[in-house]
């Protein structure tokens, strides 16, 4: 993409409404525009990152054997009356009526609808296990929408639902989700710590939230510092391997890590004092096994091998896709702007032309631009007629991991500068070497 032809409305001034750094940087970098409280347009740069995050989520879910589909945003109230949640959900639910005065709602989550899909088509244990998921917009009429996309009212969520014959099978699905989430967050350059969560009115031990540590997080968290040494890394995973899933669950959840909702002072006191940490965190996902709550209420049953009809065991598992942009920026920025992890960056590399209009500098930039694209990379070429300082400031703000700076002085020696956004280190190398390095 050539910056002169792109749509990147960067702001020079800090927007007053933004209280936290990710919100400020997303507005300044021209990624989002608020349309009403907690409802945003995704401008091209923001939309690009959102798509990269979705892509990673899709890849990791499908790697785990989970099946994508797409359910609508608008739902009929009748389904929610069946589960009893239409009245229970409260003011966070946006309710509306169609022209026939039928009660509808903008889905805040999809347990009811996916259970309805399941019961409409599945009747035998032979169809299990099954996990269906989608990435779809949700609406929750939050009391205090704030912090940009972190607490929106309309937000994008991946929500997946497992259907299993037995509790054991459903707990394997739970572990599969835990493992796939650990991989997903690490690919985005994030450390998200599974913490024991509150089962709410359903209760139960089988729910974990994934938290990214950040001072601006809305949850207070308590954990054993050993947990931050755990890395998922490049392990071979067999998602059908029940023992492996259980071992990873134990590895990542055996140390103390809880949010304020489940914090237990007495248990925490058993952690050696020098390892006890209190901090703040951003909830970027949650997994939940809830048994037969919805399947019983809504008649989602299968016939077993012995001919018995039983309700299926279910769980639901969510990733805050749009919130992740904010969380990644909270975890990765400096005073000049965003620092995108390679996995989610909107463009792989920026090209800065120090002397726009100079014949040989222009043609060196054009050649680089062409060859980077031919190598399968997605470069952003700043070909505007601007001062070098302004071009650097824009690149730093939008946070591409690499910058190639091209000027007449370097070119005289066949050199360009390759700069890492994260370390700030620069190297003078030939354009060809720069391309090789980025491939
Ligand atoms: P929170 O505690 O932040 O209100 P939640 O526990 O109500 O979140 P879940 O129902 O667990 O949310 O939804 C799954 C994920 O969706 C959350 O882990 C979070 O990352 C994301 N999410 C929830 N509410 C919002 C929101 N208002 N804006 C953006 N993302 C959200
Ligand atoms: Mg909530
Ligand atoms: Mg929560
Ligand atoms: Mg939650």
TrEMBL record:
Q: Please list the GO biological process terms of this entry.
A: prolyl-tRNA aminoacylation
Give this protein's Gene Ontology molecular function annotations.
ATP binding; proline-tRNA ligase activity
The EC number(s) this enzyme carries:
6.1.1.15
Q: Which UniProt keywords apply?
A: Aminoacyl-tRNA synthetase, ATP-binding, Cytoplasm, Ligase, Nucleotide-binding, Protein biosynthesis
Lineage top rank: taxon: Bacteria
**Family matches, as InterPro entries:** aa-tRNA-synt_IIb, aa-tRNA-synth_II, aa-tRNA-synth_II/BPL/LPL, Anticodon-bd, Anticodon-bd_dom_sf, Pro-tRNA-ligase_IIa, Pro-tRNA-synth_IIa_bac-type, Pro-tRNA_synthetase
SUPFAM superfamilies in the record: Class II aaRS ABD-related, Class II aaRS and biotin synthetases
> Can you supply one Gene Ontology CC term for this chain's record?
cytosol
Write out the annotated subcellular location: Cytoplasm
Describe the family membership recorded for this protein in Swiss-Prot or TrEMBL: Belongs to the class-II aminoacyl-tRNA synthetase family. ProS type 2 subfamily.
Q: Tell me how this protein assembles.
A: Homodimer.
- What is the name listed in the Swiss-Prot or TrEMBL entry for this protein? Proline--tRNA ligase
Q: Which organism is it from?
A: Paracoccus sulfuroxidans
Q: Which gene encodes it?
A: proS
């Amino acid at each position: 993409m050539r910056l002169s032809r792109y749509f990147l409305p960067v702001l020079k001034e800090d927007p007053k409404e933004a209280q936290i750094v990710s919100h400020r940087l997303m507005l300044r970098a021209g990624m989002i525009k608020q349309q009403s409280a907690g409802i945003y347009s995704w401008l091209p740069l923001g939309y690009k990152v959102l798509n990269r995050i979705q892509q990673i989520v899709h890849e990791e879910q499908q790697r785990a054997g989970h099946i994508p589909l797409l359910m609508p945003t608008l739902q009929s109230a009748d389904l929610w009356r069946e589960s009893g949640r239409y009245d229970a959900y409260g003011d966070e639910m946006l309710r509306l009526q169609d022209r026939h005065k039928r009660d509808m709602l903008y889905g805040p989550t999809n347990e009811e609808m996916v259970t309805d899909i399941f019961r409409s088509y599945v009747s035998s244990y032979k169809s299990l296990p099954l996990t269906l998921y989608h990435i779809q917009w949700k609406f929750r009429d939050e009391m205090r929408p704030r912090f940009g996309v972190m607490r929106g009212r309309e937000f994008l969520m991946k929500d997946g639902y497992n259907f299993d014959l037995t509790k054991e099978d459903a707990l394997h699905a739970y572990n599969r989700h835990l493992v796939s989430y650990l991989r997903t967050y690490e690919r985005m350059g994030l450390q998200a710590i599974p913490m024991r969560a509150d089962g709410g009115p359903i209760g139960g031990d089988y729910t974990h939230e994934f938290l990214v540590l950040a001072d601006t997080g809305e949850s207070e968290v308590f954990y054993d510092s050993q947990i931050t040494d755990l890395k998922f890394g490049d392990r071979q995973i067999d998602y059908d391997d029940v023992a492996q899933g259980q071992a990873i669950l134990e590895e990542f959840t055996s140390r103390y890590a809880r949010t304020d909702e489940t914090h237990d002072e007495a248990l925490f006191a058993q952690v050696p004092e020098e390892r006890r940490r209190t901090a703040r965190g951003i909830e970027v996902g949650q997994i939940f096994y809830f048994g037969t709550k919805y399947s019983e209420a809504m008649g989602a049953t299968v016939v077993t091998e012995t001919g018995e009809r039983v309700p299926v065991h279910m769980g639901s598992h969510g990733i805050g896709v749009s919130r992740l942009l904010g969380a990644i920026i909270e975890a990765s920025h400096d005073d000049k702007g965003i620092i995108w992890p390679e996995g989610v960056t909107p463009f792989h590399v920026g090209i800065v032309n120090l002397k726009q209009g100079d014949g040989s500098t222009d043609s060196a930039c054009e050649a680089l631009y062409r060859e980077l694209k031919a190598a399968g990379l997605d470069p952003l070429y700043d070909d505007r007629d601007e001062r070098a300082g302004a071009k650097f400031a824009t690149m730093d703000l939008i946070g591409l991991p690499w910058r190639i700076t091209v000027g007449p002085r370097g070119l005289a020696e066949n050199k360009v500068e390759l700069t890492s956004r994260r370390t700030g280190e620069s190297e003078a190398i030939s354009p060809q070497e720069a391309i090789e390095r980025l491939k």
